[in-house]
UniProtKB/TrEMBL annotation:
GO molecular function terms noted in the UniProt entry: L-amino acid transmembrane transporter activity
Membrane topology: Multi-pass membrane protein
GO CC aspect terms: membrane
Protein name, entry field: XCT protein
Membrane-crossing segments per the record: 12-30, 42-64, 76-100, 120-142, 162-183, 203-220, 232-250, 287-311, 332-354, 360-377, 389-410, 416-434
Underlying gene: Slc7a11_1
Listed InterPro entries: AA/rel_permease1, AminoAcid_Transporter
Keywords from the UniProt entry: Membrane, Transmembrane, Transmembrane helix
Xref: Pfam families: AA_permease_2 (PF13520)
Amino acid sequence: EEAVFLRKKITLVRAFSLLIGSMVGSGIFISPKGVLKNSGSVGFSLVVWFACGLLSMFGALCYAELGTRITKSGGHYIYILETLGPLPSFLFLWAEFFAIRPANSAVVSLAFGRYMLEPFFAPCAAPVPAVKLVSLLGYYMVLTLNSWSVTWSARLQTALSIVKLVALALIIVPGMMLLAQGHTENFQDAFDRQSLVLDKLPLAFYAGMFAYSGWFQTSFVREELVRPERNIPLAVIVSVITVIVGYMLTNVSYYTVLGTQDVLASPAVAVSFVQQAFKSLISVVPVLVALSCFGTMNGGIFTFSRTLFVASREGQWPPLFSMIHIRRHTPLPAVMLMFPLVTAMVCIGDIYHLMNFFSFSRWLFIGLATLGLIVHRHRHPELRSPFQVPLFVPVSFTIICLFTVAMSFYSDPVNISIGCTVVLSGFPVYYLIIHRQISSGLNFLPFFFSRSDYLTHKLQLLLEVVQQEIKTY
């Protein structure tokens, strides 16, 4: 009875909630251990946290400009496609689907399960099988919600963003009170150079940047944003500044209560903080943290499904995944596609190994996307973006990203090599399928369904999905 397309339902408040809800998730509650372990001391870890925040602001400003220059949804994928071409964009898509996104979702899901169960088993650690079972149940709930309604997913994100800020406040306020009372013993000799190992610093940055990751989420849903030229830069700047301040105060609170050995030994830093500082909050904070992780899962599914949706529309992914449910107006096939890979990674993975595994690919392609902004400016000097950042911002951000990626080979060669292998494995797939299809207009493998393919047609009927009827970009 009406046209089938993705509606513009994301207002400024919802954009702000999407960014806050995606950034403030599991990272600030699990990454302090990884940052401290690889930076060596309290002082250097706080420097890393601030540097990661500043770097995130640079990246967010670059993506805000890209979002005003390129009017399609799709985030990293569409920016790389429009600026650097189809090969690097397909390699990103390949790595995103098989490594980056499932590993990232598995990390957040495992954090959700761990914090949800921690109060029931304290002071002992929760059993690993139970953590993984609860992690999967939480992920499946979010998957179902995103399949059901865009509006309700956005409303949940807004509500959980408030929960996230409350969770941070319950850590910051008690910590600041204790600091004001003179509890500064854990900050003695904060910059111990003997414990600093330079070749481990990239892993410290990976852990810190994982906590900030999410500043790019509005770029994935650009076509669904109300007044994107105004709302993208505004939402990005306000949300990143809010998170930087919150994260710095949260880490100072952690170190006010917990010593370095306590942080390194803790499987859930926020729970350890509450156990030592305010036992009356022992059952409240872990639940709030778990809900915070739940919001991050929701934001991740919401945005990544749009990447698959756009890639399918651009002809680099099976066309079934560019289809929308006829009544729900959700990209149902794209939402459901992550189900098997995330399930597998939750079952077999460990949080910190997974984090290093996907961080290499993620920051490689984010660096390429901001390199694409420089290329786009050079190729199209006549285009005047309504929002433009100084050239040194994308140049600095790109250099730091690519340098960190290169250095990480010395820090964790095994996991980084696996991530690199996943990226490189996309080359033969691109030349066997995508390049040949572009050249001849034919399909070469049954996997790469055509729109008239029998299996695609049957899946359309089963899922009740059709092609988008109008262009919104």
